[in-house]
Every structure is written in structure tokens, then in C-alpha cells.
């Protein structure tokens, strides 16, 4: 008897579903029924070329000065060298960071390893861009140079290797286009959603919306720690003469 009741319920459910589907198939909506006109996307004028900042970008370096950056060590003016539209790490002066803080961003940054190849692996053209001063996208001369996969150029350092090695030679410039979603914490400091990042290296997708496991750690397992919704972007002094140009971002 019990099985008979269950079968009857299943049959009635199936008939109901079939009736709903049949009714939906009979309804013919005009195209306008699934259109909406508001909100209207705001207008942003793109740069004359794709690597140039659009109209809503914040330009962090336009080739003239490091006024948008400061020393991480003590907040003093950034001591890296600016020359011919480019700035270059001055070894042992320390990391620099943006004066302004950011959360979700689209970041464009161009960098070049030293022309003269010195060292190998992690000792060759090493720097890094730290989103929120915390989550590192590796900068490294990985052109025909071996190192651990999750430490080469365009890796999420010690977490995700790039999908491919898209490096140009040390005599050429590399471009990162980074799309970053900051982590969210609740009022008690508990992680609600992890950080995510997409990286395009020289026009090639190398990190596809990966979920960050936590802050960058050189040793040990990353674990999220609550932090503000916005923090500066940091560039690393790793002792190598890495150069940068054309840095801009858009708040998302």
C-alpha cells in the first residue's frame, strides 16, 4: 500500500511538471518582454591603444615621477630611480607602495628584467606586485630560465603557477593586466569570501579567476587574516634592477 501511494505521488508530480512545461511552451512572449533599458552602463572612453589608460583610470606612473608612491619602510618619498619615462628598483632602498589604498581593481603594469642577465632561478630579475600589499603576482625573468613552477613570472607566488610561460626576452617589456577581487571579512574578522585573481601576461591568459588560498607566504601554509577593505599596492625590492612603466588601474 505504501509503495502504491508513493507511486501515485510521483505520477501526479510528473503530470504537474508536464502541464507546466506545456503551458510555458504555449506562452509566446515578444522580444521586448526580456529586454531592460536601465540602468544604462556609464560611458568610459578607452585609451587610444589598449595599453593606455581609459578615461576612468587612476594613473600611478605616467613616466615623470613617483609622487603616487612612498617607501614601505617609513613613508618617505620612494627612492627608486626615474629616468627616460621609466623607474627602476634601487637595490636595498626597500619596497615601495602606493599612497592610496585599493580593493577590487583592474591593474595594468609594464615591467622589464635587467638587460644583462645575472644569476638564475629566483635570483634573476626578481620583483613582485603585491595586491593589497598582501597577495603577490610574481615578477621574474623566467625567459629560458628554470625555477619552481609556482614561483616563476606571472605565478600567484607559492600558490598557482601560470597556465603557460608567456615571457619575452630580457631586452623586451612585459605587460600584466590583473583583475583582482579582494577578500571579504565579516565584522568578527571571519572570512566570508576569498580573494580571486585573473592575470593576462603579454596578452595571454595565465591565471583564470583563481581563488587565493590566503596571503603570500615564503614559508608555510597561507591562512587568511582579517584586514581593511582597501590597502596600498606594493612593489618589491628584491635586489634586482627591474624597471617599470605605464602603471594605471581602475577601481571595480
What's the quaternary structure here? Answer: single chain
Average of pLDDT: 91
**Tally of helical runs:** 1
Rg for CA atoms = 25 Å
Detail the poorly predicted runs: none
Care to count the β-strands?
15
Secondary-structure-based class equals mainly beta
Shape: globular
Helix content: under 10%
Order of helices and strands: HEEEEEEEEEEEEEEE
Percent strand: 25-35%
Q: What are the key terms here?
A:
252 residues, mainly beta, 8-stranded antiparallel β-sheet, 10% helix
Structure, explained:
- The chain is mainly beta.
- 10% of the residues lie in helices and 29% in strands.
- It has 1 helix and 15 strands.
- The strands form 3 sheets. Strands 1, 3, 4, 6, 9, 12, 13 and 15 form an 8-stranded antiparallel beta sheet that branches. A 5-stranded antiparallel beta sheet has the order 2-5-14-7-8, with no helix packed on it.
- Strand 10 and strand 11 (191-193) form a beta hairpin.
- The longest helix is centred in the first third of the chain and has 25 residues, at 2-26.
Brief characterization of the structure:
The protein has 252 residues and is mostly beta strands. It is built from 1 helix and 15 strands, in the order αβββββββββββββββ. It has one helix at 2-26, and strands at 58-61, 69-71, 81-83, 86-88, 96-98, 105-112, 127-131, 135-139, 174-181, 184-185, 191-193, 196-201, 204-211, 234-235, 243-251.
Amino acid at each position: 500500500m505504501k509503495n502504491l501511494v508513493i507511486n501515485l505521488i510521483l505520477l501526479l508530480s510528473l503530470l504537474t511538471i508536464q502541464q507546466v512545461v506545456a503551458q510555458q511552451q504555449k506562452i509566446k512572449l515578444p522580444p521586448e518582454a526580456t529586454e531592460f533599458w536601465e540602468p544604462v552602463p556609464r560611458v568610459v572612453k578607452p585609451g587610444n591603444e589598449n595599453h593606455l589608460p581609459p578615461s576612468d583610470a587612476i594613473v600611478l606612473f605616467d613616466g615623470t615621477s613617483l609622487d603616487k608612491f612612498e617607501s614601505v619602510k617609513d613613508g618617505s618619498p620612494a627612492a627608486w630611480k626615474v629616468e627616460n619615462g621609466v623607474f627602476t628598483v634601487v637595490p636595498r632602498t626597500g619596497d615601495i607602495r602606493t599612497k592610496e589604498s585599493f580593493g577590487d581593481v583592474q591593474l595594468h603594469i609594464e615591467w622589464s628584467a635587467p638587460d644583462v642577465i645575472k644569476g638564475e632561478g629566483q635570483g634573476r630579475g626578481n620583483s613582485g606586485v603585491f595586491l593589497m600589499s598582501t597577495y603577490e603576482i610574481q615578477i621574474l625573468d623566467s625567459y629560458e630560465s628554470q625555477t619552481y613552477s609556482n614561483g616563476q613570472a606571472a605565478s600567484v607566488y607559492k600558490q598557482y603557477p601560470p597556465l603557460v610561460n608567456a615571457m619575452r626576452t630580457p631586452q623586451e617589456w612585459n605587460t600584466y593586466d590583473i583583475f583582482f577581487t579582494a577578500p571579504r571579512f565579516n565584522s568578527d574578522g571571519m572570512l566570508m569570501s576569498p580573494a580571486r585573481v585573473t592575470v593576462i601576461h603579454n596578452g595571454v591568459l595565465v591565471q583564470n579567476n583563481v581563488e587565493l588560498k590566503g596571503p603570500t607566504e615564503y614559508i608555510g601554509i597561507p591562512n587568511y587574516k582579517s584586514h581593511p577593505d582597501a590597502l596600498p599596492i606594493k612593489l618589491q625590492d628584491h635586489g634586482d634592477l627591474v624597471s617599470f612603466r605605464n602603471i594605471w588601474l581602475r577601481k571595480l
